[in-house]
Target: 4-hydroxybenzoate 3-monooxygenase (NAD(P)H)
Amino acid sequence: MRTHYPVVIVGAGPAGLLLSHLLHLQGIESIVLESRSREAVESTIRAGVLEQGTMDILNETGVGERMRREGAVHHGIELAFGGARHRIALTELTGRAITVYAQHEVIKDLIAAREAVQGEILFDVSDVSVHDVDSAQPSVQFVVDGQTRRLTCDFIAGCDGFHGVCREAIPSDVREEYQRVYPFGWFGVLVEAPPSSDELIYAAHERGFALISTRSPMVQRMYFQCDPSERAETWSDERIWHELHTRTESDDGWRLKEGRIFQKNVVAMRSFVATPMQHGRLFLAGDAAHIVPPTGAKGMNLAVADVWRLARALDDFYHRDTEDALKGYSAAALKRIWRAEHFSYWMTRMLHRLDDASPFEQKMQRAELEYVVSSRAASLTLAENYVGLPLA
Ligand code: FAD
Ligand code: DHB
Model:
């Protein structure tokens, strides 16, 4: 059994899997350690919106074939408020677009690509711990099939999400954390129905936010703002439809199409950044280092941008004999991350019902929405952030 790998990656989410794929294309070997089962990883329902840059990376690295076939390219989104819908023409404004394609489908495509070249992914590992990240030869210990194993490596990539163990390996005296927890969450449903709209609808209503997204011609994804402690299983379908209809109602007679609800879940919302994202030979990427509220659809896209940068820095280290990009990884990645943090916070504040807002602040919220949909400059600000700023 092998005991050394150039790179050990903790976590088989979009960040960890894409990193191992990019490293493979650069001739750098890695192994991915994942605590959940393959089935769980391939079926967890999460993100849906891929930025132009994410689409480009998947296409350019040979894992975009099914996304091109089954994903839906969108050239605009709609903001709904005050009984009217307003289009933000993403492509007209920016020349770029987004694709709606579920995160777990991206994960399936990446696992298939790793499998096709005998890439190593160990599922169902437990008790992962990282060691000696300050030295030239760190190691990762874990349990798999009841056996404790230890792998040495040149680098550890902490791609283990918000609840992972890698972030904690950065000593607390050098780690800073910035956080905001929102007093609301999203109630998400999957519905067996045809699309109600050609484009995503982000709705701001007195009763709270709602989002109408899609998955396929037969399955739709919808969300509405709720109390973060809400238990999804206690909500009847009738009550869910009532909220969704009320919050998306429109003066032009348009109405949401109903269907069988076959999945319900509640997600809490936070903004979070840990800095620096590296210490010695340990590098964090994706949700392990930062979280955004889902309103801007940025979480998975940020994870992709992080590992794209990290893979290039490792390529420089192994093939161009320079550590400059590795040394500058955290600082460079954080520029994009703080921009996305602001965008996600701004979208969240603009579109949600803020119970702590005074009547004055509520008027400010409406004035901002009116400006965003009526000014080209303001629409462009939303659009260029939503489709994703250039990677480099
Ligand atoms: P994760 O996907 O969390 O993967 C981390 C992996 O590490 C997991 O598989 C976990 O099991 C594993 N792991 C954890 N601890 C350990 C350990 N100790 N040992 C081994 N393995 C471990 N983002 C977007 O870009 N667009 C969207 O439209 C969007 N919508 C969203 C909607 C919802 C409802 C939610 C919840 C999120 C949404 N996001 C969206 C965010 C996106 O899903 C995340 O940002 C993304 O999953 C981050 O990827 P990651 O690989 O960094 O982390
Ligand atoms: C979806 C999720 C988001 O967070 C978002 O902003 C748009 C769409 C989705 O799951 O389809």
About this structure: The pocket of 3,4-dihydroxybenzoic acid (ligand 2) is lined by residues 47-49, 100, 200, 211, 213, 221, 294-295, 297 (CB under 6 Å).
